[in-house]
Structure formats: C-alpha cells, structure tokens
Amino acid sequence: KAGVTQTPRYLIKTRGQQVTLSCSPISGHRSVSWYQQTPGQGLQFLFEYFSETQRNKGNFPGRFSGRQFSNSRSEMNVSTLELGDSALYLCASSWAPPVTEAFFGQGTRLTVV
Amino acid sequence: SQELEQSPQSLIVQEGKNLTINCTSSKTLYGLYWYKQKYGEGLIFLMMLQKGGEEKSHEKITAKLDEKKQQSSLHITASQPSHAGIYLCGADTGNTGKLIFGQGTTLQVKP
Fold this sequence. Notes:
The complex is a heterodimer of chains A (113) and B (111). By secondary structure, chain A is an all-beta fold. Chain A contains no helices and eleven strands. In chain B, 0% of the residues lie in helices and 55% in strands. At the A-B interface, strand 4, strand 5, strand 9 and strand 10 of A face strand 4, strand 5, strand 9 and strand 10 of B.
C-alpha cells in the first residue's frame, strides 16, 4: 500500500512569488492535514480537510490556503512568499477525524530567497 | 510555555542501554501520537494511544498513556544505533483531529 506522497520534494522560490504544494493521501484515507516545521517554531498546524471541506485552521495568515479534491488529494498554496515561509511542509493522512492514526509524507522543503 | 512539553530535549546513550522520553500536556489528551523523524525528513508513525492506562509496544519501543490522560512516556529497551533520531509526541487536546507537537527529543545512540 503506497504511503503519503508529497510533491515536489524541494522548491526554491523568490520573495513575492506564490507556490502550490501537493499531497496524495494513503488510499482510502479521507482526511488530510498540513503542518509547517521550522527550527524556531517546531511543527505547527496549518489546516485540515475532510471530504473536501476545511474542518480546522491554524493561526497562519490568509496567504496560506488549501483545498481538497474529490479523490482526497490536497493542495496548499502560499501567495506572496516571504523569507520566513522557508520551512519543511508536511502533510498527514488519516482515515477520518478526529482521533485516528495519522501518517505523514516525506515533506516538501521550501526555500524562499 | 508549550502546551506539550517533552523531556529531555536531547539524550545520548550507549548502545544496549534503556531510555525513556516523556511527554506532558496541560490539557486532557484525546489522542497521543509518537513519531520518529530523521532530520529534514518526514515523520514515521510509531504509535497512537487513546485510552487512559493504555500501553502499546512495537519491537523494542513501548509507549504508555497515564490514567489521567495528561502524560505519556516512550521507553526504548536495549537501544541500537538505528533508534537514533528525533522523537516527537503529538496530541489532540480537543478531539478535533488537529495535532499539537512537542519540541522533540533528539536521541543519539553510541555504538
């Protein structure tokens, strides 16, 4: 059974640009959550989607957005990139909320220059 | 202060020794997750605990959730170099599916 797949693995973007990251959950899983990991702040929750609906949102500015498609694949978008957006972005897949086993992908390393 | 506190922050042990990592919450834990991470990579799922008093084991790793569901411990028996990495506890404190994480424990195992 394939795991959680995140693409791309690495990205370098310039300040002011926008970026879209993709996450394909484990087959059968309908919930996808996104997290940002930085050395200073650790792992922080961005948002969670279930059945194409955003169920929870973390404390991030509106530049961070996401969506989920009918096949449960999810994308997150960051607009007007800032240097501080450089981070490892991780998505987690679970069967259904709230408390079920959550499996993470390898992450997308975003560097903003 | 952090909602989820892990201790110790780092640990160096000799191969073959046992060790314990603790995770303490200021709120009731609806679900407690343990993950392992190699630097810069994704999180590897180890275990999830839900019920007070629950204990789970996988190979040489055992995790427990205390009766009051506010603290968990991860115990590694007879550590090996392959156990080295960053151990993270994550918790659902609102029964929402949103996880908060501790700051992580970096484990080094010396051969």
